[in-house]
Amino acid sequence: MARADLGYNGRGKWCSYKRTTLILCTINIGVALYVLHSLYTSLYIYPYNDSQTAIRYTPDQIRKMEESIRIRKASEPIELVKLVKEIKKELLSEERQREAVESWRKEKLKANRLALGKTLNSSILHKEAVMLTRALDSNWAKLSEEIGLWIPLEIINQEHDDKPEGATEFEEEILPGRQLPTECHTELHADYDGAAVKWGLTHHKESAYECCKACFDHAERAKPGEKKCNIWVYCPSETGCYSPDKYEHKLGECWLKYAEKPRLNFKDKYSESYRNSHPNAPLIVPWVSGVVTA
């Protein structure tokens, strides 16, 4: 009885394993069929949806797009492209000419040296051969320059100072307005330091003469103990005057200042080191100044 039970139980377990395997295979086949079905249907569904959801442009939008394409094509620098191509062809032709001349020079030099190695009957032919060898060998650069075939690798331009002795570095400038008297001690391209007794940002004058006169007037009206103007600084430039501060200085600014010992900020030109540290600084000092005695 015990063996019969064991045999029956073993057969029952075997049957359960087989049944489980069949069930798993069936499930896998079903999943595979579902995936294939999904892929198959997507090939037809998505193109149809894309065609339904495609953007449709109005006739006005199509006309504008065509117009933009036409304008873009019309704005292409066709003439410039043609000119560049022609220049490239010319440069290529010149390069080929140089190569041909250089090849001829080498062949001629080689043949001439071979001729020198042989005995020449005429002394004139020998001298000509020697001269030609020297010209083609050592003096070729000079010879090619004379016949227009040599272009230097580097061109050095030298500036020549043609100013006569005693001439000033700056051209004589004419300031607008009335001529300034000698009492103003006018200095072109000069900027003096000092304590401002009248701010130029809000104190504009028509000319340097008016600015100098304002300095004298301020000194005369100053009360005892107040600082009297003894420096005037005027901006005569229509494009404004440079200053290292944060303000934008415009034409007509008239700065009235006082200094016990007047000292120049800048004169004639801003130094190279200063312009390197202040990239916005011009080369020439634009201000006009004067130190007066009230």
Automatic annotation (TrEMBL):
Domain of life assignment: Eukaryota
Keyword annotations of the record: Membrane, Transmembrane, Transmembrane helix
Keyword Transmembrane helix: yes
Membrane spanning residue stretches: 21-46
Presence of keyword Transmembrane helix: yes
UniProt-recorded name of the protein: Apple domain-containing protein
Organism: Nyssa sinensis
